[in-house]
Amino acid sequence: SQTIHQWPATLVQPVGSPLSLECTVEGTSNPNLYWYRQAAGRGLQLLFYSVGIGQISSEVPQNLSASRPQDRQFILSSKKLLLSDSGFYLCAWSVGDSSSGANVLTFGAGSRLTVL
Amino acid sequence: GQNIDQPTEMTATEGAIVQINCTYQTSGFNGLFWYQQHAGEAPTFLSYNVLDGLEEKGRFSSFLSRSKGYSYLLLKELQMKDSASYLCAVRDSNYQLIWGAGTKLIIKP
Fold this sequence. Notes:
The structure holds 2 protein chains of 2 kinds. Chain A has strands spanning 3-7, 10-13, 19-26, 32-38, 45-52, 55-58, 64-70, 73-78, 87-94, 106-107, 111-115.
């Protein structure tokens, strides 16, 4: 069966410090991978998605970046965090073409980031 | 712009029935999703509608009317564990998901 792991679960970082959130998927090949941010009272915001190794699409300009060094690994990074980067970050995966059928997203457990 | 509207919060009684509405205005339509999210946890998939009508899955049902830009999630025989946020999301003409802010459902004994 497929599983998704995301870590760390929580972290508190000072403004200006770097960030690295990691996500790995097991039990599937060539998944579509996503990074979302969830702010209180707002819908999920897609930050990045990837359809293959080294292929990253950015949806929102910001000081965050993403990388996919391996087929089932997706990393969210920042060189210098801002206060506004605080939030709940979710990694997700799906298989297949987004235009085919439901293409359901399966989410990781999330990472709660607090920037002070 | 694209918009998904759903009530911020609803309260219901254990054992009762509750209907959570979702209205949408999007650039095209390629399916509507409902996800359940318990506090501090990841969203989990509940249902998918692409054609008009009712999809039933156990205690949960989801309805879609594309002409009205409207969907609802119906939860029957409510249990305390159903206390969660329910997220509505629509896939637009570019196959991108547009998410509502979620409806927090509080179940009282």
